[in-house]
Amino acid sequence: MSSIKESKNILKWSDTVELVDNLRVDEVGLKERVASLASRSIKKDSKLQALNYIISMCDLTTLEGEDTEGKIGQMTAKAIRPDPSNDEVPSVAAVCVYPALVSKAKEMTRNSNVKVASVSSYFPSGQAPLESKILDTQFAIDQGADEIDIVINRKAFFEGDYRKMYDEIVALKEVCKSVHLKTILEVGELRTYENIKKASLISLAAGSDFIKTSTGKISNGSSREACYLMAKAVWDYKTVTGFKAGIKVAGGIRDSKDAIRYLVIVNEELGSEWLNPDYFRFGASSLVDDVLKQIKKLKTNAYQSSYYFPRG
Known about the structure:
Elements lengths: L4 E3 L2 E2 L1 H8 L6 H12 L5 H14 L1 E3 L7 H12 L13 E4 L4 H7 L6 E5 L10 H13 L4 E5 L2 H5 L3 H15 L3 E5 L8 H13 L4 E3 L11 H18 L4 E5 L5 H14 L10 E4 L1 H16 L12
Parallel strand pairs: 3-4, 4-5, 5-6, 6-7, 7-8, 8-9, 9-10
Antiparallel strand pairs: 1-2
Helix pairs in contact: 1-9, 3-12, 6-8, 9-10, 10-11
C-alpha cells in the first residue's frame, strides 16, 4: 500500500479504502486473546505504580445540562490534587467540559499540568450539519481548549457512506490544527467487531490523534474487546504511516482491577511507550475514587471511605 499522506497523519481516501477493504475479525480468537490477557496478574510491588499511572491517565468529565462554574471549580481542584493528603498521587490528564465552560476550566487549571478538553460537533449524537460542527469546534478552541472530542457521523457510517464520515473528520482536524483531536466511535452502537475496527481505521486515516470508545452516554460504553481492536487498528495505522495515535476508553470502567486489565491490553499489544497520558486515557470520573482508595489501602492496609475524597 502507498503511504503517501496529504498531511502529517491524514491518509488519502484511496489509501484509506485499501486499508479497510475486506476487513475481517476472528471473533473466537479475539475473545480468547482478551480472556487470556485478563487473567494476567500484577505483582504487589508494581500495583502502586500501575494505580498512579491510571490516575495520571484519567480525564475527569462533567457533561450535564446542570453544569455550573462552581461545579467546574470543584472538578478542576480534584483534577489537580486528586488526594490532597498524598503529594505522591499525580494530577489527572485532563478535564472535559462543554464548550461554554472551557474558559472557566482553563482559568481554574492555570499553572497546572491538567489539560482542558471540550466535546464538540453536537455531542453526543453528532446529528448536525458539518458547518455547525465546525462552528462548535472553533468556538471551543477559541475559548482555549487543548483537546477536542468529536463523535463520528454514525448515520453516515451505518448507511455505508464512509467517505462522508472521513471527510467530516478531515474538516474538523483542519479546524483543530495542533489541538489534539479525539474521535469517539460509540462502540456500543457499532454492532459488530468488524465495524469497530473499520470505524477506528477510518477515524485514524482522517487525522484523529486519539480514538475513543464512547460518549459515556449509553450503558454499554466500553469493552476490553473494543479496546483490543482499537489497539490493533492503532498498530496497523502506525505500520502504514509511522504515526503513533492514542486510545481513550470511556464508559463503564469503575474500578482499578478492571482498569489494570486495560493497561495490560495496551502494554501487550502496543508496548510500554503507550502507557502514558499522551497515548492512553481513561474517561471514567468514578474510577478515580476507587483508585485512590486502593492506593490508600496499599499504604495503610485499611480501606478509606469514599467520602474522604472530594468529588468532581
